[in-house]
């Protein structure tokens, strides 16, 4: 079918191609200077002390858990309303995963339900870490969650995959003022892309050092120490069992070029969100919270029930509008069903999924395409 409008799409221009081609012609395709430049740009933008580039947000979440000491026998809580990687990283560390239901208005982990669950949980079964997700780019209630972390002694990882450019209390998501670690994604559907790739941020030098070692085979390189001890600066030592989770210079070059366009990318996403708010507000659908702090990675609407949701999804798809459903609750996937989660424990996530649709949202989405999307939704309800 011609003229298909997907729910998301990356935007690459000549400047991106030029920057990547420069690296391809350089002496370093990986482990060169470009990754450090990208890290420094993100660090400065977020006003955070340390930034560590990785080959994906999934990898970033994995080593973030390890850097906070998550291991077999530990318990980590997160939200059911996320991509499975948010929970998988916990299991990869040998720990046990559990969930806290979402707020039915924000679709983020509910701070009030978190507090109730913490109060009911025995001390030995309290979580070591809680991973929050800024779903669709709308920040969680970080202030309350941070207060709870001090009382119940857990660490906080922000899955900020949707939230580059989002704000919270006049600071940037990713500055880690309310968390220990924040993790970003540069997958092609995100605000900026490096092809694949991610960034982990923290204000802790100790955590930063652990992350840097874990992303590169667990190897420590220290010229001063090794030159003195072994009389040769090129010596290196594997001190942990790590991974090859490094970002390469090709990806970093694209990331830097894309980052230069972040401001206009975010501006356009906000314009698209405003268009949807203006043109869909009289229909029998639930619109998301209209927050100036959101980065608008997604624009999710809720329909009256499961049947109407499915009918609208198919109606739009038949006419070339490819929407998406974010997310199938993690605990309902086949793998997680084996872990015997009770669906009744997370009713908000289950009900949310039955009625949600993510409308197209990306920088190059044209006004005529937006008009088509809105017109078709209105026709659906007029029939």
Layout of secondary structure:
Layout: H1 14-24, H2 34-46, E1 50-54, H3 57-67, E2 75-78, H4 85-92, E3 96-99, H5 111-120, E4 129-133, H6 142-152, E5 155-159, E6 167-168, E7 171-172, E8 181-185, E9 198-202, H7 205-214, E10 219-220, H8 223-230, E11 237-238, H9 249-259, H10 262-280, E12 299-302, H11 306-318, H12 334-337, H13 347-355, E13 356-359, H14 367-382
What is this structure, in a nutshell?
Helix content is 40%, strand content 13%. By secondary structure, it is of the alpha/beta class.
State the helix count.
Answer: 14
Radius of gyration, taken over Cα atoms and rounded to an integer in Å: 22 Å
Strand order of the largest sheet: 1-9-8-5-4-2-3
Major β-sheet annotation: 7 strands, mixed
User: Percent of residues in beta strands?
Assistant: 5-15%
**Euclidean distance between termini CA atoms:** 24 Å
